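User: For documentation purposes, I need each entry recorded in a consistent format: the amino acid sequence on its own, followed directly by the corresponding structure tokens. There are two entries in this batch. Please keep commentary to a minimum and don't merge the entries.

Assistant: Recorded as requested. Entry 1:
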Amino acid sequence: MIYPLLRHLFFSLDAETAHSVGMAGIDFLDAAGVTCLLASPVPRDPRRVMGIDFPNPVGLAAGLDKNGEHVNALAALGFGFIEVGTVTPRPQPGNPKPRLFRIPAQQAIVNRMGFNNDGVDKLLANVVGAQFTRRGGVLGINIGKNFDTPIEKAADDYLVCLDRVYAAASYVTVNISSPNTRNLRDLQNDDALDALLGRLKAAQAGLADRHGKYVPLALKIAPDLEDEQIQAIADLLRRHRMDGVIATNTTVSRVGVEGLPNAEQTGGLSGAPLTARSTAVVRRLAAALAGELPVIGVGGILSGADAAAKIAAGASLVQCYTGFIYRGPQLIAEAAAAIAGLRRA
């Protein structure tokens, strides 16, 4: 595989520049019909989750393709589903650069991007025109609030985004767990979350009637939660009959990277140091939910074994991001094969 050589080149560049170059390169290979140079065939392993048929259980997490500009090329690498965003009602630049930092010694990344995106209308124009969606590919759209929207009015931003993306999405993810938008994680608190979920579910019901289709709603939560908070969130998810939950986002902890270059940078930490913490949240959440709604496991998947561990802990699907940066497209096939192996065991 050529990815280790490409990674050496990418890692010689600033992290955000490397991201742009890498996405352009994947688009070029897809247009030339030679993504096989990067990716191995992925075993078909259909799963039905949230009422959606997934060709395999390994997806791309939100954040890599914030504006839905690279959906076709990313899907050609073998992902069973693609999640784009986080998108906000209005375009916003995000936090000042530099805002993306590697910690190679621990296969980790710190980011403080701050929901940089071109706004919901631009994302919609991109994904509606994508062959992937026209051919029935599973597309999740991750929604958030603008940085300058007061936290007490955050629900209004989520409702605007939900209304706009509903018809184009296979499912919609409500991101209340990024550490890079001020006070956003306050929405995970009991009363705030109860009110937010109530408004979202009411809007979902109205949109289902208007569009003649039901689009599932998932909630994305942080890994930095105590057991009591996980139980409280699970109780609210069940009470409001949410369709799924994604565990987890990045962590504000620096356990596992102490003293390493870039570890002191402000932002969310992802990658290998998050593996055990995220899997523990998946396990606790799955137990608290008792099968009433599915868990999508994400955080620190750097190998097939990591992906299989998320499934064994109670996840129905998994998503990759940082592992994809460090391991390349080969991780997709490896993770899918490891998960398929659980069924044969």
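Entry 2:
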Amino acid sequence: MRHRLALTVSACFMGLSLPSFGADLVEIYRSALPSDPVFAAARSAWQAGQEKLPQGLAGLLPQASISATDQFNDRDLIYRSGGTASQSKYNSNSATVSVSQPLYRKQNLTAYEQGKTQVAIANGQLDLASQDLILRVSQAYFDVLLARDNVAFAQAQKTAISEQLAQAKRNFEVGNATITDTHEAQARFDLVTAQELAAINDIEIKNRTLAQMIGKQPQVLSGLDSQFAPRLPELTSMDAWVERARSTNINVRVAEDALALAVQEVRRNRDAHYPTVDAFASVNKAGAGSGISGGIGTDTRSKVIGLQLAIPLYQGGLVDSRVREALANEEQARQNLENARRNAELAARSNYLGVSNGIAQVRALEAALLSNQSALDSTRLGQQVGVRTQVDVLNAQQLLFSARRDLAQARYNYVLSLLKLNAAAGKLSEADLQQVNAWLARDGQK
């Protein structure tokens, strides 16, 4: 009954009929891949980052240009000796094709290497966005499941309390109980009604959060199978996960590339002290009228080929200032790398503890659930023989439903901690979602 209530409420709020199979985590993730605006922005940033390599390569390749002019000339010629002045009006035009090839430019070589590093950074940032999408989708998915559970628990508790309230009213009417029992049951009923409304509001919010990522209202989601049993990850040692995180965490990898880029930037600015050598060639064709009556215009054609050497001597201290700036940025990148490593270690430790402690917590809550169910059965029996009160029954019911809610929360937290642990190690992928899918019920229920 609890499962049917949960599915009914979820379908009502999502405006969809119940399917024979619920949408699983991989399906939701694949729906988010083309629809999530955050990931779409990251993908566009990655595409922009790929252009850094051809931009760096351009500094090593030939540069060609064509220029042309066409002008009208109006010239007055006046002799200082007082001779007769002359005036000429004529057209002139020219066209030039020029090609240059850098032969030695250390700055351009370093810029090309920087382009490779920037592409690597862009790749790492896209990997980060991919992991982030998996975690955000998973968090939203299990938030919906927990909200759905809370509605089901609140409604089941409301049903149980309403039965106690009706019984209290009957007992009061026949004189077997005081009005206090009725007031106590009514107070509990009103409280759980408020909790039910809050849970219904929460499931709507959680559904909207998931819909924001996949671009549509989600279907009924498959929940964790009732036989789901959490287990330790492939590496059972915290130190092994920490060591893996220090070396393969994607944030660490991006920070390492950022440090390499900063070191290259220092070298590129220092390279500005070196001379440059370029080969160049040009072809120019020009023509002009004579500008005098009966005169003959001229046409010229010239070809030039040569080498150009440029030696920088002094630029007002600009180069030295840029080197100092780059050195400061290098130190910043080095500290960012150390921070990334420490954060990766912390994430690995905290999520490993979340996984290992989550297993113990799930087992303890499973035992607590059985104990609370037995306690409720005993309390109900005690009420029937007169050694327990209705308040005792209500308290036992409250403990039972709290244990159910805590167990559901612990199971979801375990799954999320496992995914975050893999993310800390830099190995979170769709394959991990496939593993989680194996833990889901295939009929959309739990």
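Summary note for entry 2:
Residues 1-21 have pLDDT under 50 and may be disordered.
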